[in-house]
Specification:
A five-stranded antiparallel β-sheet has the order 1-7-2-5-8. The chain has a three-stranded antiparallel β-sheet with strand order 4-3-6. It is α+β, with helices and mostly antiparallel strands. Helices cover 52% and strands 17% of the residues. The chain has eleven helices and eight strands. The protein starts with a strand and ends with a helix.
Length: 277
């Protein structure tokens, strides 16, 4: 995507066309937020397939292998797709990362609060249709959209009220540094020093937000990328291990099987069968 921001609506006709000719699992270089007003969404992400009926919100982070198939439900489908580059709204992007960590699709309640999401999408779409659209207005609307989603999720009990703003900011900065360095053989000390804090405090924040240590999050990011590469490329297991900072292929395979319950080759074979359905 060449644009910083793009919004469009998937209607019944488009959903029928897409579901008849679904894409292969793929990744992209932008963030994507889906607001489901009606219809349903089949989503292959995080190596699982789920189907969620509207109203829902779904978030796909940059670089994550996935496949989206919109479908009609009760003869209807209306899904807003919002795509934006990571640097378009970096100050609140990690708000989405923490809200949707480990769960890309969130079923929401019907009502006036959810209707506001649709209204904001209409406003952003109208602004982009102007001859000289104001990206300042679009950014403000998108930020408001994030906040409403966060409030709605809190109502469902899907967030921890103890998460403080400073912890979220630190965690977001940690994720940003991790995204640039996860392929390198670096330990917890490196990330703590980058954040000007002790390893103990960084671990406490990560435990509070994700109930995982810093090293576990680093390992999870590496293995997620390993799975992405196993699905989306034909690189050998040795090449993938080297690319992710593992000095020994055998150690990489050991860690992968310990965390995933399968060897890298077993995982690649299984995902290939799922994607071919």
């Amino acid at each position: 995507m060449n644009k910083l921001f793009h919004i469009f609506r998937v209607n019944e006709a488009e959903a029928t066309f897409i579901s008849s000719q679904p894409d292969e699992p793929h990744s992209h270089d932008f963030e994507e937020l889906l607001i489901g007003i009606s219809g349903e969404l089949e989503h292959f992400i995080d190596f699982n397939v789920t189907t969620t009926q509207a109203p829902f919100v779904s978030f796909v982070t940059k670089g994550k292998v996935h496949r989206l198939i919109p479908r009609l439900y009760n003869g209807k489908c209306e899904i807003w797709a919002i795509r934006f580059k990571s640097d378009f709204i970096p100050e609140t992007r990690f708000q989405l990362y923490s809200l949707f960590h480990g769960k890309a699709n969130l079923k929401l309640e019907k009502g006036s609060c959810f209707q506001r999401l649709s209204i904001i999408c209409e406003m952003m779409n109208d602004e982009t249709s102007q001859e000289n659209p104001s990206y300042a207005i679009i950014k403000q609307l998108l930020s408001t959209l994030f906040t409403i989603i966060e409030v709605e999720i809190k109502k469902l009990g899907n967030t921890n009220e103890a998460l403080q703003k400073t912890q979220n900011e630190t965690f977001g900065n940690f994720l940003s540094i991790l995204e640039k360095n996860y392929h390198r053989p670096l330990g917890v000390d490196f990330y703590a020093e980058k954040l000007f804090m002790s390893t103990r405090n960084l671990n406490l924040i990560c435990q509070n937000i994700l109930e995982q240590s810093v090293s576990e999050i680093i390992e999870t990011r590496k293995l997620t990328e390993a799975k992405n590469l196993l699905i989306s490329t034909k690189k050998s297991i040795s090449e993938i291990a080297y690319e992710l900072g593992y000095n020994e292929n055998s150690y990489f395979s050991h860690v992968f099987k310990k965390k995933s319950g399968q060897s890298p080759s077993e995982f690649r074979d299984e995902m290939g069968k799922i994607a071919s359905f």
